[in-house]
Design goal:
The complex is a heterodimer of chains A (119) and B (114). Chain A has 119 residues and is mainly β. In chain A, 0% of the residues lie in helices and 47% in strands. Chain A contains no helices and eleven strands. In chain A, strands 2, 4, 5, 6, 9, 10 and 11 form a seven-stranded mixed beta sheet that branches. In chain A, strands 1-3-8-7 form a four-stranded antiparallel beta sheet, with no helix packed on it. In chain A, strand 4 and strand 5 form a beta hairpin. The termini of chain A are far apart. Helix content of chain B is 0%, strand content 55%. In chain B, the strands form three sheets. In chain B, strands 2, 5, 6, 10, 11 and 12 form a six-stranded mixed beta sheet that branches. Chain B starts with a strand and ends with a strand. Classes of the chains: A mainly beta (119), B mainly beta (114). The interface between A and B is medium-sized, with 27 and 25 residues.
């Protein structure tokens, strides 16, 4: 088990372009979270999935943002018509729901993040 | 609402010095408390956690005690190393809507020099 993985690690794009990020959680982790971290700040919650169901979205997630987890495994986060204010580190985390050898239910395990730069 | 306040950085120490990073929280209910560490260019790694009052979390020489009476979870280490240089985040886990949402502090950058 290699932990949570994210792809790409870095993305540079021009304003107005669409970008998509992928997150692969720890296997058998039902819960998946997306956070955004801007420079000098702590991560802020964006959205949460329980299996394939998106159960909560932060007000930070404007209409240009969409997240999916189609089969309850990997997840994608898409940003349409990117703006310079979208430049940030996008972090994915996962956690198990029941008693699990793959971690504690109240602990979220983070991936390395995708750093987005919008020019 | 729920919030976390950390001491501002950067904190600059010499190797083998004693480290304290203050963290206080505001929460309804009984949250779990965490310290995460972020090395340059990387994601967050769980450092330690405590799930109830008076619990002490510890890992790699770092310790923090869940103090309900002072709503604090200060991080300490007796002797820091250059390799401890990183950004440290205090967080609470608030159970709401059937899952735990993490609320983070702004982070405290630690720089340890030889």
């Amino acid at each position: 088990d290699t932990g949570v993985s994210q792809d790409p690690r870095h993305k540079i794009t021009k304003r107005g372009q669409n970008v998509t990020f992928r997150c692969d959680p720890i296997s058998e982790h039902n819960r998946l979270y997306w956070y955004r971290q801007t420079l000098g700040q702590g991560p802020e919650f964006l959205t949460y999935f329980q299996n394939e169901a998106q159960l909560e979205k932060s007000r930070l997630l404007s209409d240009r943002f969409s997240a999916e987890r189609p089969k309850g495994s990997f997840s994608t986060l898409e940003i349409q018509r990117t703006e310079q204010g979208d430049s940030a580190m996008y972090l994915c985390a996962s956690s198990p729901t029941g008693g699990s050898l793959r971690g504690s239910t109240d602990t979220q395990y983070f991936g390395p993040g995708t750093r987005l730069t919008v020019l | 609402g729920n919030s976390v306040t950390q001491m501002e950085g950067p904190v600059t120490l010499s190797e083998e010095a004693f480290l304290t990073i203050n963290c206080t929280y505001t929460a309804t209910g009984y949250p779990s408390l965490f310290w995460y560490v972020q090395y340059p260019g990387e994601g967050l790694q769980l450092l330690l956690k405590a799930t109830k009052a008076d619990d002490k979390g510890s890992n790699k020489g770092f310790e923090a005690t869940y103090r309900k009476e002072t709503t604090s979870f200060h991080l300490e280490k007796g002797s820091v190393q250059v390799s401890d240089s990183a950004v440290y985040f205090c967080a609470l886990s608030a159970f709401s809507g059937g899952y735990n949402k993490l609320i983070f502090g702004a982070g405290t950058r630690l720089a340890v020099h030889p």
